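Posting here for the record, re: zinc ion.
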Amino acid sequence: MTAVDLDQMDTDGGGDRPVPYRADGGYTVAGGMMLIGLLGFAGMLLGVLASVVSKWFYLIVLFPMAIGLGVGAVGAFGILRFRIRTPLLCGLAGFCGGVFAMLAMHYTDFRREMAFRGDHFTAQEIEVAARVEEIRNDPNASPEEKALGKELRGEPLVLKMLQVRTFWDYMDYAAERGVELKRTGRGRGLNLGHTGSYIYWGVEVLIVAGVAFGIMKSAAEDPFCAICESWKVEQEFPGVGGAPQELAAALSAGDLAKVQQHLAEEGATSLVNLWVCPNCEEDAPFEAGVKELVTNAKGEVSKKPRCLVTFPGESLAEVRGIVFPYAAAAAFESSEESAVGTSPTAPASEPESA
Ligand SMILES: [Zn+2]
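Prediction output follows.
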């Protein structure tokens, strides 16, 4: 809907001054409604599925995370498909989708419990349970009713279950019964109690909704080409440069000479990524960013974004010309890792750094 604000870009400074990247916030009402419908459908399906599977086993934390991932993945697909670029709204939609999935799960439990009750208790028992206090003080109640009422008062949990009329009654009965944490298939576990169960469900909903929020927010943040109305494609050039923060600062300032210097440094702790429109190429603005390659104690490498800026299209050839040689050399080195010693070979086209 909204076009990229081209005035935002500094065209006085020789055309290569970048601006910090911001999602353009575009969407269509139809696309938004399709996304909400899709999320509702996915949330319901996942909630019902979780309820059915939980009859056999349920893994705390992991199940909510899986449901959140499911809602988020469907949402991200919708964002991509309907070209929506409103990160916060999309995140909130994911949050609501997650809450809806958990409501669907509990609601399916409720329906199943009610079906079970219908099969195992008589209409009279349910009737008496509903009027149990009334019958107790009613001199005209039949002895049969009074006896049954007395029996039910001795079984508070059964009485509460028989008194369930609405979904919320059911949730309170389920809390009274208490969520039980136990190892799969091993007898009785720790009962969280009435308040504990409510807290547990709250935490569970927050996990599901939080995961879906994060996935959808980040999906809507991806760079989009407003000229041809399509998503830009990300290309990563790993293992270049030694100082991620300095490299990011140079790139953000549009100081390409400095970028080139930092790329030439040893260390391979940075990654440069470019988001370019596959249709428009240099005819549309593009994004360039720096991610820091962080290696943890286990030797696993994660990418931590340091900056993402939007350049005018005419800078594309120059930026590519600077990044490509180092990226190609880094790729060559990692494939030759075992053969080559400790000193990395300089790329053939390495410029003289001042
Ligand atoms: Zn384009």
